[in-house]
Specification:
Blueprint (H helix, E strand, L loop, with lengths): L2 H6 L6 H29 L10 E8 L5 E3 L4 E2 L8 E7 L5 H16 L7 E7 L17 E4 L2 H7 L12 E4 L4 E6 L5 H14 L32
């Protein structure tokens, strides 16, 4: 081997670290603008607080929860990365307060307008009882999953003695739990924050979104949860 061939000969696989570095750089280029938008829009607002709600710090990635669809199939919530997730937790009986949460989520979804495809509503059912059939119509379009309440308490930020039902949480498109609206939250103020988040992240769109595992609809219900001919 002459000197020129020796200079051209690879030592091991030098291209592998370079390719790996390039992938990390690409990921940073794609994800950092979104993270920066969220930071500027929320963390820097009013000395580190959002206009309404509580910022989850540090952010909590969605863990491997033991979730199941209503027909008993295992479901990984992390498969919905790319969506803005609105999460509520409540028993299957879904009392008046639970129904109001589902209604508020539906209104948030409708207010998203052209960005509705970026938003998913999730109801985490905290027991194994039969689902209240009266909520199928207002919950139309909502992802309904049965969850282990002990796992939810370990992941979702709750005040001492606070029940799972009541707050609403937001998970960002990167799969991080980032914002919490308290029990009996003001839907107008919460919608203002959520609308700002959607607006500030319009330039970031997932290349592919997982289809939502929607629950069976009540007869005559529309995917948005609005009955045909009903005003939202």
């Amino acid at each position: 081997m002459n000197a020129a061939q020796a200079r051209r000969a690879p030592a091991g696989r030098p291209g592998v670290p370079r390719r790996r570095a390039a992938l990390w750089l690409l990921a940073a280029v794609v994800l950092l603008p979104l993270a920066a938008t969220l930071y500027i829009g929320l963390v820097q607002h009013r000395g580190g607080r959002p206009a309404y709600g509580e910022l989850v710090q540090p952010q909590r990635p969605v863990p491997p929860l033991s979730l199941r669809t209503l027909d008993g199939k295992a479901f990984d919530l992390r498969s919905l990365n790319g969506y803005w997730l609105m999460l509520v937790a409540a028993p299957a009986s879904c009392d008046a307060a639970c129904q109001k949460l589902l209604f508020d989520m539906r209104q948030f979804y409708l207010a998203a307008g052209n960005d509705q495809y970026r938003v998913a509503r999730v109801w985490l059912v905290t027991d194994g009882a039969p689902l209240n059939p009266g909520v199928l119509a207002p919950a139309a379009g909502t992802v309904i999953l049965r969850a282990d309440p002990s796992q939810l308490r370990a992941w979702l930020p709750l005040n001492p003695g606070e029940a799972l039902q009541g707050p609403m949480w937001l998970v960002d498109p990167l799969g991080n739990l980032m914002l919490r609206f308290p029990a009996r939250f003001d839907p107008v103020r919460a919608l203002g924050v959520f609308g700002k988040l959607l607006y500030n992240t319009q330039s970031w769109k997932a290349r592919k979104l997982q289809p939502l595992p929607l629950a069976p609809q009540a007869p005559g219900a529309s995917p948005s949860g609005v009955q045909p001919g009903q005003r939202s």
